[in-house]
Specification:
The complex is a heterotetramer of chains A (about 300), B (about 375), C (about 260) and D (about 290).
Chain A lengths: L3 H26 L8 H16 L5 H24 L3 H21 L16 E2 L2 E2 L2 H24 L1 H11 L1 H6 L4 H27 L9 H14 L5 H16 L1 H5 L1 H15 L10 H9 L12
Antiparallel strand pairs in A: 1-2
Helix pairs in contact in A: 1-5, 1-8, 1-9, 1-10, 2-3, 2-4, 2-8, 3-8, 5-6, 6-8, 9-10, 9-12
Chain B lengths: L1 H12 L11 E7 L6 H20 L8 E7 L4 H14 L4 E4 L3 H13 L4 E3 L14 E3 L4 H14 L5 E7 L2 H16 L3 E8 L7 H10 L3 E4 L3 H13 L5 E4 L6 H7 L7 E3 L9 H14 L5 H20 L3 H9 L2 E3 L7 E4 L5 E3 L1 E6 L4 E7 L2 H4 L2
Parallel strand pairs in B: 1-2, 1-3, 3-4, 4-5, 6-7, 6-8, 8-9, 9-10
Antiparallel strand pairs in B: 10-14, 11-12, 12-13, 14-15
Chain C lengths: L4 E10 L2 E11 L4 E5 L6 H8 L7 E6 L2 E2 L5 H6 L2 E3 L12 H8 L8 H6 L6 H19 L15 H14 L4 E5 L7 H18 L2 E5 L3 H7 L2 E6 L2 E6 L1 H6 L1 H8 L10
Parallel strand pairs in C: 3-8, 3-9, 6-7, 7-8
Antiparallel strand pairs in C: 1-2, 1-4, 4-5, 9-10
Helix pairs in contact in C: 3-6
The chains are: A mainly alpha (about 300), B alpha/beta (about 375), C alpha/beta (about 260), D mainly alpha (about 290).
């Protein structure tokens, strides 16, 4: 049996993959950047925790509900986003992060600074899910979300998103209803972040507002940006790399934020499409190495 | 796309630990070595290491050397859970001592309890930590007790008639104040007003101006040493006359370094009595100063005691978790610690001890009085 | 329905500059109207007003009887009005196929949830997807773009990019097509092909076209009627030959004549 | 009455600090349309340099020049080796580069100066002016006084010098300004140095005002200054200074009367988002002038 310590790492990796993907959908496809995505993880975590603790709802209902609540707030942010230019949207999402933490700290029903304790472990066939089961659940959810995002990206919805990201006004001239698709991108992205929040809450069994601060939003952004926006493999591999590496390389632990910061700077300056994105040195290198066996619809010549 | 998922599983399985082998007794320890609470974390680590030195100096545990396995929990609940799993499964420690604040300790407590690993919280004082968990003990006094002793001392020693509460908004800050809020009226102290502030706040001038207006005899302010230093400094700048009453959160040399002589006259309830005559306390204070050139604080003393209690329990009862838990639970009047005799552990595993009250005289804590009233000090 | 597009008293000014002042146009279905005038006369501004990028200061634009000057570009596109741009506006790092597919966007009925619900070839989404691909493939064959079908548009030669932009506009299956200098920068031979394609559009697909072009010979040859604009004011409207000899048009292009010579 | 006056002074001191930091950031936005998040890292660098100079020489007089020189150099280097390369990219790229650099700087300071607060205590802190119950401390006088002097200097620099004219021209329209001979790289480099020097002084002042310096003291200010910039109308220095003082006073009085119904920065961000949505040009009007 795999020792519990690796279950912990696997679960956190899955949660990070979901968070990274949520940024991947929003920034990678629809070109809308969020610097406060930890707020949506918080909303998902708190919704799921409160539903299971105070209202005794089962996890299997609470988790989708948490995703829905988070998506609702995402919808609201999407409507606001329509009026804002790119970099101001980024500051607004940053502000949202501080506001959500502030509300969780000061509004009466969220347990204030004490947070919410003894969140129930999800029940399956009548008894508590073991550590291995929970990791399997996380992996299944990651697979499901990756498949859904992959389908969305290939469908015409993904096409519209890419049109918005490339040249918004030209896409509009082509009949793309910009508002509808931007809001839809926010809804999908925040729903995924809500699911990640719910998984986090039911794994840690104990959450406080301080878990979802602004540094976490920076880390989520780093996962996706480093991996490479615009292709699913970017955020996924970025998340795996940046979750496993610190656990493995002990010395990184103390320099974590320094490495994340510098990585963000270097990647953004020299390799904006990320390590695993299109045309990045890694992808091209791997392609040459494996002789282009990765068929991207005849990209040759 | 399939490639990404396959790569993911491959990467995860790769991380296999190095199985450590030794016949020494391994005790786990975790504290915030980085992050905003790093000063207390370092101090706790030094206290724990000093304890291990003392234990190994006089023969270790029944001849086996004690080895301390410690990790940094970065004062984050998430990290503390990861550390807990690592200590239990990879390092297979016999028992664990927490040198961290309430939040990370609260997150880890259920994991140690479920895996039957004895866990001692040294400075985490939140009531939820030991609550009906047989393997979790707390040698730090319950936070509300500091509030009660604070009220008793304000009335009896400081002869205060009115008070204002300035409460830090986190689990420690509010739990401590509950004690004072309940006990103060019983001692005839009228609580004029109550203000709260978020953790990490730096500017208290707008609140302190109001408090100066309220003109209380004492100002009960809960916070860690950084907030406390700003409150003391800004209160002096604004000419606030009230005596400031604090708790163990103030107890750190950084409090004096940051606030300088604005700290004179501040009164705190804490665990470490600088004036204590117990031989172990004197030995600890002297040895700590010799090694680190800075006066030991309550955090170091508590971590030191946590290790000694754990080691004593293992020495008397062996390494089986149930025996260790029973041994700690039944400890009575244990003198072998720096912070005064540990009188007893109650059913929930929380210690009862005398609460020393210290007053600051030219930037150093000196003993003012000790509260021994069982009514106040039993949880 | 005898009139497809009717513009009355359209004017647009930027601050003090009068870009367009009361332009009137009536366009019958299947007609090709050439729009000529010196640079900066307001031709592109006219296009931007028609397709919603600019909001006119006064005047009415009616498409199939409905006023559209207040609608956004995406709403106007959905009514069946497509356009190309003077300086190419393509999605540079998307492939040719995807650029053209975006033209199909207005015809994609699959709602977000219905699309998600159905899966695989049989489903509604699958069938619709194939229908769109078929239309796009025919357009690619029509314009001879098979060779560059899956190449990134950014890297294509100028002439080919012009064709891709035309293909994308056609994918919208428009009833009114606004062509903004489709042949600019093309070789003579490419120009010839473009003329044939535009003629085919009119005859086979019955598309009404508004064409901005500087190459007089081409405009005269291809247009049913011509509108000449100078400094934002319409100066001549009518059959190609009449407009070519119209004194104001000559003056606008060749400058003031000292003596009025009889036209050659 | 005393409380009102004290709050007024506290709010003014806070406003002065916000103003000194946000001027640099607003000017950079005015010129390059970049949200220069790393600016708060420069401010912390100023505080640390000031502390170092104070420790070496024993007097705070040396702290200010050390901070000014160090931060001006850092500001220029940030522009020369970081922002210049990405200044014409989509606005998102320099924003993330800025945030990445700010995070890295914060951690680097933590590794260099330790994670905890270091005292920046100087003897005069406890002295001050006492009028009945109303106390103003030396620190508050120092902060407000020096801020006032510096603001006059900034006004002169922006409105009365050739460089200032070039800055204002570039802020209106960079291409046109370059067209008429403004050597933009030199101008921008100079602007970064000027803004960073101001931030350096602000760092020292904050260090003195709170008597403590720590590695992540930049965090709260970094995001608070965004609010000031947006409220003041981006790129508009006068607007930003006014907004800085308004925010300082508003925060102080709100907290003094209603206490912390929300943490300080949450309150500030709510104001910002409302302004961003309702008045895109900011409270102080036109976005373009400097």
């Amino acid at each position: 049996m795999i020792p519990a310590y690796y279950h912990t790492i696997m679960t956190f990796t899955c949660i990070n993959i979901l968070l990274s993907l949520s940024i991947g959908v929003l920034a990678g496809y629809a070109g809308q950047v969020s610097l406060g995505h930890a707020a949506f993880m918080a909303i998902g975590a708190y919704a799921s925790a409160m539903l299971t603790v105070t209202f005794k709802v089962s996890f299997w209902l609470a988790m989708p509900a948490a995703a829905l609540v988070s998506a609702m707030v995402g919808l609201l942010l999407g409507v606001i986003a329509l009026r804002l230019k790119e970099d101001f949207l980024a500051i607004t999402t940053m502000g949202l992060n501080f506001i959500v933490i502030g509300v969780l700290l000061y509004a009466p029903y969220f347990g204030k600074a004490l947070g919410i304790g003894d969140i129930p472990v999800p029940m399956l066939f009548g008894e508590e899910m073991g550590r291995g089961m929970y990791t399997a659940l996380c992996l299944a959810l990651v697979a499901g979300v990756v498949a859904a995002v992959w389908w969305l990206q290939r469908s015409w919805i993904g096409l519209a998103w890419r049109g918005i990201r490339e040249a918004q006004d030209v896409a509009q001239v082509m009949g793309v209803n910009i508002a509808k698709f931007k809001i839809f991108a926010f809804v999908i992205s925040t729903a995924i972040a809500g699911i990640a929040g719910s998984l986090y809450a039911h794994f840690l069994l104990f959450i406080t507002p301080y878990d979802f601060g602004f540094p976490l939003s920076i880390q989520i952004l780093t996962l996706a940006v480093l991996g490479g926006l615009g292709a699913i493999r970017g955020p996924v591999l970025g998340a795996i790399l940046l979750t496993i590496l610190p656990e493995y390389l002990r010395f990184i632990q103390d320099y974590r934020m320094l490495t994340y910061g510098l990585l963000l700077v270097l990647v953004m300056m020299y390799q904006p499409q990320g390590l695993f994105g299109h045309k990045s040195f890694l992808t091209e290198g791997l392609k040459r190495l494996f002789g282009g066996e990765e068929k991207i619809r005849g990209r040759a010549a | 796309m399939k490639k990404a998922i396959v790569a993911a599983c491959l990467a995860l399985v790769l991380c296999l630990p190095l199985a450590a082998l030794a016949d020494e007794v391994k005790i786990g320890f975790h504290a915030p070595l980085t992050g905003w609470a790093a000063a207390d974390g370092q101090s706790a680590l030094r206290g724990a290491q000093l304890a291990v030195e003392f234990i190994n100096a006089d023969g270790g545990i029944n001849g086996n050397k004690v080895a301390m396995v410690y990790y940094d929990d970065r004062i984050e609940a998430k990290e503390s859970v990861i550390v807990a799993r690592k200590l239990i499964e990879s390092d297979r420690v016999v028992g664990v001592v927490s040198g961290s604040y309430s939040t990370p300790t609260r997150a880890a407590a259920p994991i140690y309890d479920r895996n039957k690993v004895p866990y001692i919280s040294t400075i985490g004082t939140h009531p939820e930590i030991p609550m009906n968990r047989d393997y979790v003990f707390q040698i730090a006094v319950m936070s509300p007790i500091h509030g009660r002793v604070g009220a008793w001392m304000a009335a009896e020693t400081l002869k205060a008639k009115s008070a204002v509460l300035l409460v830090m908004d986190n689990d420690f800050g509010s739990a401590v104040t509950d004690g004072f809020r309940i006990m103060a009226p019983k001692y005839g102290i009228n609580i004029l007003k109550e203000y709260n502030y978020p953790l990490g706040e730096k500017d208290f001038r707008s609140l302190l101006s109001n408090i100066k207006n309220d003109n209380p005899d004492v100002l009960w302010a809960s916070g860690y040493y950084e907030e406390a230093a700003q409150i003391a400094k800004q209160a002096k700048e604004l000419g606030l006359k009230a005596t400031i009453i604090g708790q163990e959160g103030y107890d750190s040399p950084k409090f004096f370094e940051l606030a300088g002589d604005a700290t004179n006259g501040v009164v705190i309830t804490t665990n470490l009595d600088r004036g204590s005559q117990s031989p172990m306390a004197q030995k600890f204070l002297a040895e700590f100063f010799k090694q680190h050139k800075v006066a030991a604080d309550m955090v170091a003393a508590s971590a030191f005691d946590g290790m000694l209690v754990m080691a004593h329990a293992i020495k008397t009862a062996g390494t089986k978790p149930d025996d260790i838990a029973k041994a700690i639970g039944e400890m009575k009047n244990f003198e072998g610690v720096a912070t005064g005799p540990l009188l007893a552990f109650d059913a929930q595993g929380v210690v009862t001890r005398y609460i020393p009250v210290q007053i600051v005289k030219d930037q150093a804590f000196t003993s003012l009085t000790v509260c021994k009233d069982p009514k106040l000090i039993t949880p | 329905m005898d009139v497809l597009l009717e513009i009355q008293g359209l004017s647009k000014n930027f601050g003090g500059l009068k870009a367009l002042s009361n332009v009137d146009i009536t366009l019958k279905p299947k007609e090709i109207l050439g729009v000529i005038g010196p640079n900066g006369a307001g031709k592109t501004t006219l296009f931007n007003c028609i397709n919603g990028l600019y909001r006119p200061d006064s005047g009415v634009i009616r498409f199939e009887g409905r006023p559209i000057q207040a609608l956004g570009p995406d709403r106007i596109a959905r009514l069946g009005i497509a356009r190309t741009f003077q300086n190419i506006e393509l999605f540079a790092n998307m492939r040719t196929m995807e650029n053209i597919m975006l033209g199909r966007h207005v015809h994609m009925r699959t709602g977000i949830f219905r699309g998600a619900a159905m899966w695989g070839r049989r489903s509604f989404a699958g069938r619709e997807e194939r229908a769109h691909r078929l239309t796009v493939e025919t357009i690619i064959d029509l314009l001879g773009l098979q060779a560059v079908r899956d190449k990134l548009v950014g890297g294509l030669p100028y002439g080919t990019q012009k064709l891709v932009e035309l293909a994308r506009a056609l994918a919208l299956e428009p009833r009114l097509l606004l062509l903004d200098e489709p042949c600019a920068g093309m070789t003579a031979e490419e120009k010839q092909d473009m003329i044939f394609w535009i003629k085919d559009l009119q005859d086979e697909l019955g598309v009404t076209i508004l064409l901005i072009e500087h190459d007089m010979r081409m405009v005269m040859d291809i247009s049913d009627r011509i509108l000449a604009i100078n400094f934002g004011r319409p100066i001549a409207l009518g059959a190609p030959e009449a407009v070519r000899r119209h004194p104001d048009v000559l003056e606008a292009y060749l400058g003031k004549q000292e003596r009025r010579e009889p036209a050659a | 009455m005393g409380t009102f006056l004290e709050n007024l002074v506290t709010g003014a001191a806070l406003g002065s600090i916000y103003a000194l930091i946000s001027i640099g950031m607003t000017m950079v936005y005015g010129l390059l349309k970049i949200l220069h998040v790393a600016h708060a890292g420069v401010y912390v660098f100023g505080a640390l340099l000031g502390l170092l100079a104070f420790r070496l020489t024993g007097s705070i007089l040396f702290a200010f020049p050390a901070a000014v020189l160090g931060c001006a150099l850092m500001g220029y280097l940030l522009y020369r080796f970081m922002y210049r390369r990405v200044q014409d990219e989509k606005p998102l790229i320099p924003l993330i580069v800025g945030i990445g650099m700010f995070t890295a700087m914060g951690d680097a300071y933590r590794l260099a100066a330790g994670p905890y607060s270091i005292s920046f205590e100087h003897g005069l802190a406890q002295t001050g002016i006492v009028l009945g119950t109303f106390h103003i401390s030396f620190n508050q006088v120092l902060v407000i006084g020096s801020a006032a002097a510096l603001l006059v200097l900034v006004w002169l620099m922006v409105n009365k010098t050739k460089t200032g004219l070039a800055w204002r021209a570039s802020a209106q329209d960079r291409e046109v300004a370059m067209g008429i001979g403004v050597n933009s790289n030199y101008m921008f480099g100079l602007n970064f140095m000027f803004g960073s020097a101001l931030a350096g002084i602000a760092g020292v002042l904050v260090g003195l005002y709170y008597g403590a310096v720590n590695a992540n003291m930049g965090e709260v200010w970094a995001y608070k200054v965004f609010v000031v910039m947006v409220l003041g109308g981006l790129g508009n220095v006068t607007g930003t200074v006014i907004a800085a003082y308004l925010l300082g006073l508003a925060e102080t009085f709100i907290i003094s009367s209603w206490g912390y119904f929300l943490p300080r920065d949450a309150i500030a961000f709510i104001c910002m988002i409302l302004v961003l949505i309702l008045m895109p040009n900011g409270v102080m009007g036109k976005r373009k002038q400097v």
